[in-house]
Amino acid sequence: MDTTTDNSATRTDSLHIVCPHCDAVNRVPATRLGQEPTCGKCQKDLFTGKPVDLSSARFLKQLERSELPVLVDFWAPWCGPCRSMAPFYEQAAQRLEPDFRVVKVNTEEAQDLAARYAIRSIPTLALFKGGREVARQPGAMDANNIVAWAQQNNRR
Fold it and tell me: How far apart, in whole angstroms, are the C-alpha atoms of residue 54 and residue 52?
C-alpha cells in the first residue's frame, strides 16, 4: 500500500471561483466542478459554456480571485478576424469549462486593459494563471487550436 502524501490533491480540494453573473467569490470542491455548481449568492450557474464578457473591474476580479486559469480573447467589434473567430471561441469555451474561465475583453471599451497588457494586435488570446500572464497568441484560430493551445500552455 502506498502511504505517500499527494500535496497537489490537498491543495486543490476546493477552488475559489468568481461568479460570471454577480462576481461573488465561491469556494467549490474540485470534485464538484463538473457537476454544474451554482453561485451561493445569485444561484446562477458558475459555468455557462460561453465566454464571459468582462469590463476592466470584472476582469481584474476574475484574475485576482479565481483559482482557475483564465483564457482571455482581447478583441474589438470592428475587427473582421475577431468576428470570424467568435463562434470558434464559443465552441472552445464549451470544451474548456470547468477547467478554465473563458472570457472576452472588448479593447474598445477596456482601453486601460489593452494598454496595461500591451495588446498590439487583435484578436489576441492570453492565458493567465494565478493572476499572471503565462502565454499569449495573436491571430485568429479555430476551436480545436484554441483548446489545444490553452491546454498545452496550462501545463507549463
Answer: 6
CA atoms of 118 and 140, how far apart (whole Å): 18
Exposure pattern of 7-32 as b/e (b: 16+ CB <10 Å)? eeeeeeeebebbbbeebbbbebeeee
C-beta contacts of 125-128 below 8 A and 24+ residues apart: 125/71, 125/72, 125/73, 125/74, 125/149, 125/150, 126/71, 126/72, 126/74, 127/69, 127/70, 127/71, 127/72, 127/153, 127/154, 128/63, 128/69, 128/70, 128/71, 128/72
The active-site residue out of 19, 39, 42, 79 is 79
How confident is the model over 63-80, as a mean pLDDT? 96
Each residue of 102-131: pLDDT tens digit? 999 999 999 999 999 999 999 999 999 999
Integer angstrom CA distances of residue 149 from 2, 21, 152: 35, 27, 5
pTM beyond cutoff 0.85: yes
Is residue 82 flagged as an active site residue?
A: yes
